[in-house]
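ok so for the tutorial part 2 we go from a plain amino acid sequence to predicted structure tokens. step 1 is just haveing the sequence, like this:
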Amino acid sequence: MKRENETRLHPKAAEAKDLMERGRLSRRGFIRVAALTGMSAAAAYAMAGLPSPAFAQDSKLPFVDDPEAKKGGTLRVAMEIQKMEDPANYDWTQMSNVSRQIVEYIAFTDPNNVTHPMLAESWEASDDLKTWTLNLRQGVKWSNGDDFNADDVIFNFTRWMDPAVASSNAGLSTFAAMMEEVDSGEKNDDGSAKMTKRMIDGSVERVDDHTVRLHLTKSVLSVPEDLYNYPTAILHRDFKAPFSDNPVGTGPFELAEFAVADKAILKRREGPYWGGDVYLDEIHYLHYDADNQLTAFASGEADAIYQFGIEQMELAKAIDGEIIPARTAQTLCCRFHVDTPPFDDKRVRQAITKAVDNAALKALIFPEGGDVGENHHVAPIHPEYFALPPLERDVEGAKALLAEAGKENLEITIDIGNTDGPWHQAVAEAMRDQLSDAGIRLNINVMPASKYWEVWTSTPFGATAWTHRPLGTMVLSLAYRAGVAWNETNYNNPEWEKHLDAAEATLDVEERRKLMEPVEKILQDDSVMVQPIWRPVYTIVTAKVHNYPPHPTQYHQFNKVWIES
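step 2 — the prediction. this is what the tokens look like for a chain of 565 residues:
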């Protein structure tokens, strides 16, 4: 018997098809929307008139076997080896790249921004996008022998919305639409009730062993995309932290050895794996910091690396390897705590942003590739990006604002962790020179990356690297909605959230761009950050590595990678 979504075009997919035919939505934009509403990739590509990729020909499996692949061998990857405690609380991609080979996701989003089923075999959305039915894949086994089923999914969804877990996933549109604000039972300093958010009873329904239904309070199109956000890995229903001590998974590899800042050794699992052939015998993640990964590759100690910086491009070109570039929505936010002096005065924040020339910073740090940031965290490559007037540096305006605020000769300190490499510090040093023209003294506190991640949400002024997300609205919900775990600015603006809600609910890209104008403008005018750069990402692999998946988020999905001996 065919499921409903195989015989009926969802109204949003029909709307997207009409927009495509009228030239208001690209063919790939249509494919993205159709896939989100539950249409198979093969059908979506066919309807768009584009050739279907090999993996879309068989809807039963999300990855295609390579007939030329050779089994065996070890893939060596140079990358920082970070702790793996609770995937629900991961705060950087490198953590997830090791565990991604062990545990898996309900869905996955490919480098073309198309989302496919993974641990779900399919999904169906109601016409109003408030009810989502996840049809889970049957026959999937955990590495401990247990069957994967609805209980595992419900366990994870419930944890993500538990305020005691404090997962960033609660900030995603999907889960924000299944939560309500309640009295925590504690008091604020002024004696008022301290409020918290928790899951609404009945919002996650167990239909049967392999079907879970989500009941949302508002329309959300991005449910499948949210379920490939890197902290949304599906863990066994009996999970107890730390993950590295008991790494039970549904994925193709098992953890053999693990040591933070040293190595992670993964071996192909012996038991049955639902996802078809797996070619690599082992994956060895070897710890190298960002500065030394390319050196490890050049010396033959690694077959691939996580990344290298623009300052290393000439060296990379001189090495025998394939350079893989990607234009991304990865960025650096030099952000303020908007409720902490002196940054609780908007005039001070506006003075700082006026005194900085984002375009000059980008040209200095990334002269080739990348895009200029505009202090609102929506990138030019995001489909809903609205082009605001270019920012212009205004030193005299900055001085006037500081005088009005009584903050002439302002002295501030920014915390820098260089978590993506030394270019963070270079940005801060260039900002220091620019700010001095307005009478602002900027001190730079450089700390180890691990220490920065201990304080990134609590420091009054810090430089935080944010990874790529396929939608601007997705990162805005994670980072700037009131009360979410990753709101590192403590921003709280109900008017702004209403505009964001409207943009999230609109499919027509041209209309959504219009709705994004106030979203971007309000955030820019409130000056919650200096965000000068959208950075390009570079990696490199040897010629003997095949099917290495370039991804703008730097997610490693090695199911079908193979290596020539």
